[in-house]
Amino acid sequence: MNKAIAIRLLLPALIVVLALVPIITDDPYYTHILIMICLSIVFAVGLRMILTTGQLSIGHAAFGAIGAYTCTLLVMKADFNFWLALPLAGVVAAIVAVLVGYPTLRIKGAYFAILTFALGELIRLVFVANWGGLTGGNVGIMGIPAPSAIHIGGRVLDFDAGVFGNIRGYYYYLALLLMLIAVWVMHRFDRSRVGMTFRAIAQADLLAECVGINIMRYKVLAFAVACFFAGLAGGMLSSYIHYLSPVSLTFHDSIYFIMFAVVGGVGTISGPIIGALLFTALPEALRGAKQWEPIIAASLLLLAVLFLPGGLVSLPQRIKARFEAIRGKEAIEHGVA
Amino acid sequence: MALLEITKLSKHFGGLAAVSELDLQVEEGEILGLIGPNGAGKTTLFNVISGVYRPTSGKIIFNGEDITGLKPSMIAKKGLVRTFQATTLFDEFTVLANVLIGFHPHAGIAIWGALVGTPATRQREAALVQQAMEILDLMGIAHLKDELATSLPHGHQRCLGIAIAMAANPKLLLLDEPVTGMSREETAMVMATIRKIREQKGLTIIVVEHNMRAAMGLSDRMVVLNYGRKIAEGSPQEISENPEVIEAYLGAERYAA
Amino acid sequence: MDATLFFQTLVNGLQLGVVFVLIALGLTLVFSIMHIINFAHGEFYMLGGYALFYFFAQFGVNYFVAIVISMLLVGLIAVLIERGVFRPLRDFPLRALVASLALVMLLQGAGLLGFGPEDRGVPAVVTGTLALGGTIFAKERLMVMGIAGLLVVLLYLFLHRMKLGWAMRAVAQEKEAAALQGISVNRTSAIAFGLGCALAAGAGALAAPMFYIHPFMGSMPVMKAFVVIILGGLGSIPGAVAGGLILGLVESFGTTFAGGVVSSMLSFLILILVLIIRPTGLFGHE
Q1: Which single residue of A144, B48, B197, C73 has CA 20 to 30 Å from A296?
Q2: pLDDT digits (tens, 9 = 90+) for A253-280
């Protein structure tokens, strides 16, 4: 069967199934896992987009934290409506990305990695410092309200009340929507000339520059778009968990986002999605031996970096190539070729 | 007026003058050969002209415009495009995709159009594919359009490098060692191609080349550099008989031996 | 401010600085040879701390001998890691960077599992203070400063007086040229990584009696080390020494006058500003 047609048929079916989840189950625990998977995917596909320009961000979670604090503070201290505060959370994260990205993305490799790392720590410390009593310091902010209810033609979508008997139903829909938008946007980038330009810059930046590509503009674009979505995901996370502190999104989470992307595979957008699924499911599978979880996760990352640079999504192709190589060899040995 | 006019151009690295006080004019439509022994400053000169390095002093006027110190991407957009010495290509892309990237300056990217995939965008992309195929055809590598750039033989890779530059629609093309290190057949093929694109597109070309015979064969006029200075200028015939040039080359070879 | 407080803060800053120098030297040495930013450098510091805890506090080995043992042991582990992880990734800087992040998690996870989550204390080696004109020195800190200073001098002598050290500097400057002269890049990388991590372990062992030991103790020092090597210029050894001492002073004065959080923020802010304005470092060349 034609692969493109299969995907065109399967994708809407998958989305319909995902949309039906709150009806299928009202189990808050599974719903929670699904929400976390959706948000993880938002972070991971963004991180991958930065990677396609040849840069590694080690502070991606920090942009989630910026979004989370922006959204929370706007709602709690400035009486903003959540639905206005959430997009602003993304915008603020993107603005920070542009401000720090412009001067530093021109330098390749290690410098940008260190910068994003340091930025993550600086941002964490800003929230710890608790200037003007805004962020609550290490204690954090408790009692973050749910997103304000939406009124549509007489119906009220109340996040506290849940939907179809699933208490987390609306949060799930919000996370799902965010994830679908992020994946769609990144996918469109990927398929377009813009995404192609990202990859060209990663392969030969000087050549790209010498055919007239303003490589800074593209690197900053990728970084800003990825951070915009990280900000949105962070903003949603805080209102869902109802709690936010400087350790809600840290360096460790950033490593996990890298892990989702790299183990899944950065070549296609499906890679980070698979990675996010795998690594969010892993702790659940290991619930009896939780202390092994970081070791197993880190080992998988190390193995992928060393032996499977294309990630899990490249595995079928790898196996096929290996299989064909063996068959070819046998054919030669048997004198068929 | 000359298409490219360089006056008193210098580039120093620390205390070392890789290019010093160089004056150079390139007339529209000519092929200028730039030769000189190793370390004469040819590649540095290319890097300065194309904006990869910022000159220490001096002025570069291209097409009546001062381009001194502009970024490479700006210079390329104005129609001054270079190729690279090594086989610098977009390795993981197909041959066709490599050329498509080269169209960047006039592909007219609208991010919104790219995201939504508007019909206008799709039409433009289809037109670009056709143009890319024309360039590949001209370079004689159209049949390889779906191959990965890395998998091509050396000669074809150099042709692809030129094809990428051609896509950027240059007025002036800088070719950095297009045939150095090639076999005789490959050299003949690339040289024929360079002549062909000059004729068909009316390009002006500056070529740096180590292979003396190829450089003489291609150029209308030649300039010889040594230690970052111009030591001779003239027709290939004049250059081959210039005692100072012979000395520079022999001296360099004696030193190398 | 009065003179006593000033001198006390100055001395504290230098004490802190010498430990920073030690950690940063290893990091910058590894970068100069292998062009890898080893994010797991702090985990080797942690391993050094635990090695000292076991050999000195548990098995009763002499303190100074225990320091040497921890450095050797961690250095050996590092050489194996270089061989298995970083050597195959030499031509893939981005992948090597990700590998070092994986090592952070792997070693922290292994530390948690192997050594347990609780804080471990190492008894003080020397106690008492020394008063000089109103400034009070803890003898233990003076000794730490002395040993750290000695290690820095030894490294300098190694790099400048011994053939192997000369070879390493050659590789740092021009890898291809060094290879042409018959210097083995493989061997040099292994030694540089082993040596760099041994220095981190030495710092961990020296810090052990002053701080508690736990599996995550390496996170903070490695961040400071990043600030130091960026200040001093990536790959520059004199830069790391100067950067380490400067950061020690900044932190010491910052903590005294503005508190710990602000002082830490200040160091990251400096790092980011240096990266943005002068990425080659304050002492680096263009």
Answers
A1: C73
A2: 999 999 999 999 998 899 999 999 998 8
Decide if A249 is inside a domain.
yes
Residue at a domain's end among B100, B133, B168: B168
pLDDT band at residue C1, thresholds of 50, 70 and 90? Answer: low
**CB-based contact A129:C254 (threshold 8 Å):** no
The answer to whether position B67 is within a domain reads yes
Quote ipTM for the complex. Answer: 0.89
Do the domain assignments include residue A330? no
A159 near B CB under 8 A: no
Contact (Cβ atoms closer than 8 angstroms) between residue C48 and residue C229: no
Q: What angle do CA A64, A67, A72 make, to 5 degrees?
A: 125
Decide if B104 and A194 are in contact by the 8 Å CB cutoff: no
Whether A54 sits inside 8 A of C94 (CB atoms) is yes
Contacts of B104 in chain A (CB under 8 A): 197, 208, 211-213
Question: For A174-195, what is each residue's pLDDT tens digit?
Answer: 999 999 999 999 999 998 889 9
Domain count, chain A: 1
Within an 8 Å CB–CB cutoff, is residue C275 touching chain A? yes
- How far is CA C2 from each of CA B207, C10, C82, C131, rounded to the nearest angstrom? 71, 12, 50, 17
Mutation choice for B interface testing from A193, A206, A213 by most B CBs within 10 A: A193
The answer to which of A21-25, A291-295, B5-9, C72-76 has the lowest mean pLDDT is A21-25
Tell me: do B67 and B176 sit in the same domain.
yes
Query: Please, are residues A22 and A173 in contact by the beta-carbon 8 Å criterion?
Result: yes
Domain co-membership, B174 together with B254: yes
CA distance B11 to B13: 7
Residue ranges of domains in chain C = 3-116+125-277
* Domain span including residue A161: 3-253
| A/C interface, count of CB pairs below 8 Å | 122
Contact C227 A122 (CB under 8 A): no
* Contact criterion met (CB < 8 Å) for A211 and B92: no
In Å, how far from its chain's centre is CA C211?
16
- Identify the CATH number of the domain defined by range C3-116+125-277: 1.10.3470
Residue B135's domain comprises: 91-168
- Does the beta-carbon distance from A111 to C102 stay under 8 Å? no
Tell me which residue in B88, B114, B117 faces A207 most closely, judged by beta carbons. Answer: B88
Cα separation, C158 vs C167, whole angstroms: 11
Give yes or no: residues B182 and B69 share one domain: yes
Amino acid at A51: L
* Closest alpha carbon within chain A to C37: A110
- Cα angle value C267/C34/C26 (rounded, 5°): 45
**How many domains is chain B partitioned into structurally?**
2
Tokens of B89: 């290509």
pLDDT digits (tens, 9 = 90+) for A1-42: 567 787 778 888 888 888 888 888 888 888 899 999 999 999
Q: Which residue of B has its CA nearest to A209?
A: B73
Q: Kindly report the nearest CA distance between residue A335 and chain C, in angstroms.
A: 36
Contact A107 C279 (CB under 8 A): yes
With CA atoms as reference, the chain B residue closest to A218 would be B111
End-to-end CA distance of chain B: give it in Å, rounded.
44
User: A331 touching C, CB under 8 A?
Assistant: no
Q: Does A92 touch chain C (CB under 8 A)?
A: no
